[in-house]
Amino acid sequence: MSEQEYEENIEGFRKIISGFPGEKRYIIPIMHELSRCYRYLPRAALELTAEYVGVPFSQVYSMATFYRAFSLQPRGRFNIKVCDGTTCHIKGSNILLDEIHKNLGIGPGETTADREFSLETVNCIGACAIAPALLVNERVYPRVNAAALKEIIKEYRGGGDNDHHE
To answer: Model-level pTM?
Structure first.
């Protein structure tokens, strides 16, 4: 990253952070907004957050690593969450994970090199009646099998403007 890009990012972080009161109780809302905008929590943004609300960096960092909703690594534009709860597991979530690896070359916790797709497993999405299920961003896909998964990936990878999925 060039120095100019770094400075632009810092200004972007400051603009987001300063949109909140400089109080400790706003750390989580600040992190949610940073995460929404950048799809992860850059270290520099966390450092600025700590400074802004007047707490040690370690406190902000511990909050960022405690909540699974946050990532310290860049996530893809399309975040795939495969439910691996008991019902989904019994009904084939492991097959979905294998298919995602075959189609995208990533495993849980990884992001494609082009930053289009990220993959994670979650304990339960509360969709046991439609297992196996997965989420792409916030959209639920029920009763997913290998063929359906290929179509879902194709839909997001497809040639058009996919921003409506975000």
So the answer is: 0.71
